[in-house]
Amino acid sequence: MGFWEGEKCEYCNGAIVEKIADIPRKFKGKYILIKNVPVGVCKECGTRYYAANVLKTIDTSIKRRKAEKEICMAVYSY
Ligand SMILES: [Zn+2]
User: Would you say residue 2 has pLDDT above 80?
Assistant: First the structure.
């Protein structure tokens, strides 16, 4: 049973399913990508939900570990 089992989307009341995704986080003013994060995704509208403990683990990882690799991000002005 996943963490999101039985949870409902707060916007559309759709079912939330657990998926593994790469998510961007802002850290010290720049965006970094965290890979293989378990997230809850609404089946209907696609809204992503992050469990509090998952976010905490991410923050700890960012502080304790070195990045596996650096990628350049393309930047565009509006
Ligand atoms: Zn939804």
Answer: no
Q: The whole model's pTM is what?
A: 0.75
CA of 42 to the centre of ligand 1 (A): 5
Q: What average pLDDT does the chain have?
A: 91
For the chain, the domains span 1-78
CB-based burial label for 42 (10 Å; 0-12, 13-18, 19+): buried
**Could you tell me whether strands 16-27 and 48-49 are parallel, antiparallel, or unpaired per DSSP bridges?**
unpaired
Query: How far away, in angstroms, is 66 Cα from ligand 1 center?
Result: 35
In words, the CATH class of domain 1-78 is: alpha beta
Q: For the segment 40-77, what is each residue's pLDDT rounded down to a tens digit?
A: 999 999 999 999 999 999 999 889 999 999 888 788 99
CA of 5 to the centre of ligand 1 (A): 14
